Amino acid sequence: MTLRHTSVKTTLDKGYATEWNANHEINYATRITVSSHFYGRVFTGDWDLTQETSTTATAVTIVGSHVAVRLNATGGAGNFSSMRWMLQGAASDIFGPTDLPIAYFSIDCLTPTADANTHEFGMFPSAQAIFAANNEGAYFRIGNNVLYAVTGTGAAETTSNLGAPDQYAVYKIEILSTSVKFYIDDLETAVATHSTNLPTNDMTIKVCTAQRAGGSNLINMDGVGFTVLRHH
Q: Cβ(69)–Cβ(43) under 8 Å?
């Protein structure tokens, strides 16, 4: 049965038009329906690490007052530290663009090296190779110590230069019917909006970092979540 109110009323309480959304249905947009944090949990129950080639395994650590999962790309240039969200315990895609997914990340990128494509995190097809050219998806990338918003089809991409990355930030990516919006810290005002080279295939959430010629690269992630505006 469809829920039709955005607030619950007791008997004889008044209801107002502003408490209804446009379609008179439950509003999923304000809800993170799935989240993953790392307090007292075995994170490999949610995350697959088989695309990782780093000699330092991804692991939960304490950073200041935060419990975070640390991705540390070591072992020589071209090695990757990577994790991707699983579906029912197996590496798989978890939503499609027509589900209108929204992904949230709380991430600390520690002093990226001045090399091409050192960090990528966002929504990608599960089976797709990480750090490939023109990756399909909607994601953030750090390259040569510059943060980019990226949408890609697998054959071409659209990028927005967002300047030098903050060491720690909260990121949001929102896939809409005809565009993708990117947010940093202020989750109401987009820092970039793309309407070209939008992904068309099913995807999962991936977080990746790479060792390059300049040395190893790190990500500490406190948590990640996603919601979808359309449920089947």
A: yes
